Amino acid sequence: MTMYPPHSGVPSTASIFRTAMGPAFDGLHPQLQRRFSVGLAGGEACTGRGVMDRIWHGGAFVKPFLALGTTRNILVPRTGRNVPFVIENVPYTDTYGRETVTFVRTFDLPGRSRRFDAQMVLGPRGDRVLDYLGTHQHLASDLHFHAEPDGSLLIRSGEHRFREGVVDVRVPELIGATAEVRESFDDHSGRFRIRVRVVNKYFGPLFGYEGSFKATYSDIRSCGVRPGLRPVREESRA
């Protein structure tokens, strides 16, 4: 694996992603290092604007689950090609004092925009990232980050849990799914490329998208967290 020098724009202090990955973080392309160095200590937020070449779904049986998830900004219920989108990665401190980074994706689909919300925090042992999904953080999953030999980033989800009130249960494999995210940087075009696949063990591919975007960075001390970006409800359980 190639070990890249840190990008000149990467803050010297560790983000939650650098902490979780450890030395492997230096195997990422420098532009990915900067993008995943967003955090409170570094003082930067990242906004990506681009186009999804394709948003796709699996079989017809997936539609009810996607429609239900839409009520909480989880997944996207429609397919499309050449769909403009924005991803907002903004760090903040949540209600429980944890550093959190938003992963809010807005897809400009015909007739109505759709959002896919997630918020990420560092796991309690510092070796993983916990991904809370949706406006009410009812679903949570461990995420495992890996630097690939070509400098790209591979993210795989682990166990999913559903949490509401006193309820804290593992989502059964029959209705659960595994997410795989691959993100890279194209030096020729100056764009990030992203591909997401969500797959059920028994039913196969459920949902995904792929496209590219350019990133800009802003000082969180001046821009803060815009209204509506944080979840309606925050979950304390890791």
Which tags fit this structure?
4 helices, 238 residues, mainly beta, 14-stranded antiparallel β-sheet
Structural summary, described in words:
This protein has four helices and 14 strands. The chain has 238 residues and is mainly beta. Strands 1, 2, 3, 4, 5, 6, 7, 8, 9, 10, 11, 12, 13 and 14 form a 14-stranded antiparallel sheet that branches. It is globular, with a radius of gyration of 17 Å.
Outline of the structure:
The protein is mainly β. The chain is built from four helices and 14 strands. The longest helix has 8 residues, at 63-70.
Write the layout of secondary structure elements.
Blueprint: H1 16-21, H2 30-35, E1 44-57, H3 63-70, E2 80-89, E3 91-93, E4 99-102, E5 104-107, E6 114-116, E7 118-122, E8 129-133, E9 139-147, E10 153-164, E11 167-170, E12 178-186, E13 191-200, E14 204-219, H4 220-223
Antiparallel strand pairs: 1-2, 1-14, 2-5, 3-4, 4-7, 5-6, 7-8, 8-9, 9-10, 10-11, 10-12, 12-13, 13-14
Order of helices and strands: HHEHEEEEEEEEEEEEEH
Query: Rg to the nearest angstrom?
Result: 17 Å
Mean pLDDT metric: 89
Strand content: over 45%
Name the overall outline: globular
Distance between the termini: 32 Å
Major sheet size, sense and barrel closure: 14 strands, antiparallel
